[in-house]
């Protein structure tokens, strides 16, 4: 590695630990530096837990962001470094709720790579992240379906991810994401577990509203009351469907 006056000795040390070879594909150390990454970002990405611990102990900032708005926690998730991530979260108290410039959390990044062990660490600390939407309204399960991470999709559903989370900006559900990218194994799995396409979800929402209105009218008629007009919140109807799709579908068929 050629000397570069713009790169700190600490970063050189990280890349030299245990005669490690650089594993950032075509990225050079200078490019990582230009992206705004610190020594802690690099240690997290490569799984150098003791180095990360030492850097934080001597004052490295866990909340420093690179040019994409990502903290070292993101780098640990993108690198699949579950042990380092666990130490940073549980022992060193690094925050995991930060969002980058795309509105994504560290859990989105872990889902991107299909790193189940990293997802497990994050969910144990903050299970609400499983429902967090990015700027495109994609949740982590959308990302996993888009990327074809079958085992990751199964794990996210097991942990309570919404099988029919609707990203209204791109009008897609996890099922449509998987189909659009040719991941048939995931498509089949989602179909077996109540997955719907966006048009099916919208149709079901309309049926739910119609069923509710008929029941409302019937109740008013039995009580000799004039029905009052009431605005139906379609967004809340869709959320209700997402939370218990099997039961609602059974109600509609009956």
TrEMBL record:
Annotated ANK repeat ranges: 35-67, 136-168
Keyword Glycosyltransferase belongs to the record: no
Record Pfam families: Ank_2 (PF12796)
Xref: PROSITE patterns: ANK_REP_REGION, ANK_REPEAT
Protein name according to UniProt: Uncharacterized protein
Keywords from the named record: ANK repeat
Domain of life per record: Eukaryota
SMART domains per record: ANK
Gene3D superfamilies reported for this sequence: Ankyrin repeat-containing domain (1.25.40.20)
Phylogenetic classification of the source organism: Eukaryota, Metazoa, Ecdysozoa, Nematoda, Chromadorea
PANTHER family: SURFACE ANTIGEN BSPA-LIKE (PTHR44207:SF1), SURFACE ANTIGEN BSPA-LIKE-RELATED (PTHR44207)
């Amino acid at each position: 590695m050629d000397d570069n006056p713009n790169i700190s000795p600490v970063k050189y040390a990280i890349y030299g630990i245990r005669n490690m070879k650089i594993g950032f594909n075509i990225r050079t150390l200078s490019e990582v530096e230009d992206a705004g990454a610190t020594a802690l970002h690099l240690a997290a990405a490569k799984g150098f837990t003791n180095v990360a611990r030492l850097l934080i102990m001597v004052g490295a900032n866990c909340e420093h962001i690179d040019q994409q708005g990502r903290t070292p926690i993101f780098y640990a998730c993108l690198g699949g470094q579950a042990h380092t991530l666990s130490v940073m979260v549980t022992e060193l108290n690094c925050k995991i709720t930060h969002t980058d410039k795309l509105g994504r959390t560290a859990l989105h990044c872990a889902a991107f790579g299909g790193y189940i062990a990293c997802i497990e660490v994050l969910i144990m600390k903050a299970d609400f992240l499983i429902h967090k939407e990015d700027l495109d309204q994609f949740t982590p399960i959308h990302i996993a379906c888009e990327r074809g991470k079958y085992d990751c999709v199964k794990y996210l559903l097991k942990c309570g991810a919404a099988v029919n989370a609707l990203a209204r900006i791109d009008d897609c559900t996890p099922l449509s994401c998987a189909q659009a990218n040719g991941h048939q194994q995931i498509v089949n799995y989602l179909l077996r577990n109540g997955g719907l396409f966006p048009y099916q979800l919208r149709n079901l929402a309309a049926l739910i509203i119609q069923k509710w209105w008929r029941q409302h009218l019937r109740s008013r008629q039995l009580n000799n009351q004039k029905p009052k007009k009431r605005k139906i919140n379609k967004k809340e109807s869709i959320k209700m469907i997402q939370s218990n799709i099997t039961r609602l579908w059974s109600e509609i068929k009956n």
